[in-house]
Amino acid sequence: MTNERRVLVHPDKQNLGASVAARFITKIIDVIEEQDYASVVLSGGSVSTLVLAAINRSEARDSVDWSKVSFWWADERFVADGDDERNDKQNGIDLLDHIGVLPENVHRMANTSQAASLAEAATQYQAELKAHAQGDDESPRFDITLLGVGPDGHVASLFPDKPQVLQTSPTVLTIDDSPKPPPERLTLSLPAINNSQRVWLILAGAEKAASLGLALAGAGEDQVPVAGVKGRKRTVFFVDKDAAAEVPEQLIASTY
Ligand SMILES: O=C1O[C@H](COP(=O)(O)O)[C@@H](O)[C@H](O)[C@H]1O
């Protein structure tokens, strides 16, 4: 199998969430069997409410040895701990609070009481990424990165027409004027995201169709950030029918 981008189309949102959850559980079990641990990158929004919640509901959830899984974040909002805007809060409600993950394997980005400034929070996370990276890499080769895509094509907190999307270093970037609230955020850079072995992008709804179509038709990442995402081994777009409306026919690997 080549490392081409693949699009898997599902009939509806509910089916999409259940399908990605099932694949995730299978793949994580395989990865743990192969290397005795697995690393996962999470994000907020639809990935959490659709996929993480479906993993939590799955009967197969407890077949995973969660003590061997580490969790990282693709982006986070720089607000107080426990604020409803925190991605890690929703991820906790949807999955992390219900599984046997070890606290030392949960690598959250700092909140406003853990870092005095956005810049300090970014520096802390860069150091944590580097501490878990192999060789000369600046960040780990994550096993699975789960990303949502905004209607404007943003991924993590990399937004169209903002300088961060073209910034190749450092691994963690700051945003103080996010077009989507809250304004202050931390995000992995595109190269740090792309250091993942597998990137799975999850999109549902007609409002995502135009950006996805543009990204797959060759638009630049400065205009449509999702266009710049490419995992080392696999890049898979899991989409529902509505989000797939403008995907070129030849790129659709399967339709359920
Ligand atoms: O602001 C954010 O938005 C993206 C996309 O969210 P979605 O609900 O449209 O899938 C999300 O992936 C990111 O983590 C979050 O901070």
TrEMBL record:
Residues 11-235 form the Glucosamine/galactosamine-6-phosphate isomerase domain. It catalyses: 6-phospho-D-glucono-1,5-lactone + H2O = 6-phospho-D-gluconate + H(+). Pathway: Carbohydrate degradation; pentose phosphate pathway; D-ribulose 5-phosphate from D-glucose 6-phosphate (oxidative stage): step 2/3. Hydrolysis of 6-phosphogluconolactone to 6-phosphogluconate. Gene3D superfamilies: 3.40.50.1360. Keywords: Hydrolase. The keyword Cytoplasm does not apply. The keyword Methyltransferase does not apply. GO terms for molecular function: 6-phosphogluconolactonase activity. It comes from Frondihabitans australicus. It holds the Pfam family Glucosamine_iso. Belongs to the glucosamine/galactosamine-6-phosphate isomerase family. 6-phosphogluconolactonase subfamily. It is an enzyme of class 3 (hydrolase). PANTHER family: 6-PHOSPHOGLUCONOLACTONASE. Its EC number is 3.1.1.31. One of its GO terms (biological process) is pentose-phosphate shunt. This is 6-phosphogluconolactonase.
